Amino acid sequence: MNILDKIIQRKKEEVSFSKSNTSVSALKESEFFGRENFSLKESLKKRSGIIAEFKRQSPSKGIINDTVSPLEVVSAYEKFGASGISVLTDRDFFGGSSEDILNVRNSVNIPILRKDFMIDEYQFYEAKSIGADVILLIAACLSPQQVSEFTELSHELGLEVLLEIHTEEELKHIHKNIDLVGINNRNLKDFKVDLQHSVNLKNQLPKDILSVAESGIYNEEDFRYLKNEGFDGFLMGEYFMKHEDPGKKLAEFISNTGI
Ligand SMILES: O=P(O)(O)OC[C@@H](O)[C@@H](O)c1c[nH]c2ccccc12
Q1: Residue of 235, 243, 250, 253 to test ligand 1 pocket, by largest number of atoms within 8 Å of CB
Q2: Interatomic CA distance for residues 228 and 216, integer angstroms
Q3: Centre of ligand 1 from the C-alpha of residue 128, in Å
Q4: Is 36 helix (H, G, I), strand (E, B) or coil?
Q5: Could you tell me the distance, in angstroms and rounded to a whole number, from the CA of residue 237 to the centre of ligand 1?
Q6: ipTM of the modeled complex
Q7: How many C-beta atoms surround the C-beta of residue 91 within 10 A?
Q8: Exposed, middle or buried: residue 191 (CB in 10 Å: 0-12, 13-18, 19+)?
Q9: Looking at residue 189, what is its pLDDT?
Q10: Residue nearest to atom 13 of ligand 1 (CA)
Q11: Alpha-carbon distances of 88 from 97, 113, 202, 209, rounded to whole Å
Q12: In sequence order, what are the beta bridge partners of 210?
C-alpha cells in the first residue's frame, strides 16, 4: 500500500469518529458559518502569488519545525506579503489540527486554505466551521464525479476550491466550476519532485484557469522558472518552515526575487 492509500484509510476512520462526536448541525453553529470568505483567486492577483504553508512535519521529511506557533508564523506570512496561507490540518501524518486554523482565523485578513485529505461531505462543513476560505481537492484520491459534487457543496458553503492534479490522466478531473488548479510537483505516491513534468502538464490546462505550482520549490531559481512558465500561484511550505523564523525567510525570498 502506498502512503496516499494509508492516509486515506486512516482518514476514513478519523471522519467517522468526528461525525459520531459532532453533528453537522452543531458545526453550523460556529461563528464562522455564513461569514464571507476571502477570495484566493482575487488575492493571488494582488499580492506576491505565494501561498505560504504552515507545516510541522510530513511523511516524506519527518519533523520540519515543531517549535514555532501557527499564530506567529501566519501573522508574519501575511505581514511580509503572502497572497494566502495554507494550513495542514491532518494530525496523524502532518501533525496539524483544526485548532491550528481556529486559533489564527481572527488574526489574519488573507485567505486560508485548509489543507487536508477531503473524502467526505462532513469535512466541508468542518472546514467552514473553523474559518477556512479555500479547500483542497486531491484528484489522486477522488473520482471526477466526487470532484464535481464536492465543488458544488463547497460553493454552497462559500468556500473556493483548489483542485490538485499530478498526471495527465487527472486532467479529466477538471470541472468547469473549479476555482484554481494546483499542479503538485511532488508525486504523493513516491515523493519525487519534477518541475519539468509540472510545466508540461500546465501547458495542457484550459487557458482561462488560474494555476498554482505546488511543492518542492526550494530556491529562487525554481520559483523564477515556474513564474516564467506562467503559473499564477506558488504553494511553498518546507522552504520557509525549516527556518527558525519562517516569516523572515518569506520576507527575504520576496525581496530577493523582486516580486
Ligand atoms: O513543503 P513543500 O515542498 O513546499 O510543499 C508544500 C505543499 O505543496 C505540500 O505540503 C502539499 C501539496 N499537496 C499536498 C497534499 C497533501 C499534503 C501536503 C501537500
Answers
A1: 235
A2: 17
A3: 21
A4: coil
A5: 7
A6: 0.98
A7: 14
A8: middle
A9: 80
A10: 184
A11: 7, 9, 25, 24
A12: 180
Q: Which of 109, 135, 110 is nearest to 123 (CA)?
A: 135
* Dist. CA 150–CA 145, nearest whole Å: 9
Tens of pLDDT, residue by residue over 129-188, are 999 999 999 999 999 999 999 999 999 999 999 999 999 999 999 999 999 999 999 998
Residues within 6 Å of ligand 1 by CB: 53, 55, 115, 138, 164, 184, 214-217, 235-239
214 CA to middle of ligand 1, Å? 6
In terms of DSSP bridges, do strands 233-236 and 50-54 run parallel, antiparallel, or are they unpaired?
Answer: parallel
Q: How far apart are CA 42 and CA 32, in angstroms?
A: 20
User: Residue 37 in contact with residue 111, Cβ under 8 Å?
Assistant: yes
pLDDT of residue 34: 87
Q: What is the pTM of this model?
A: 0.97
pLDDT of 43-98, one tens digit each? Answer: 999 989 999 999 999 999 999 999 999 999 999 999 999 999 999 999 999 999 99
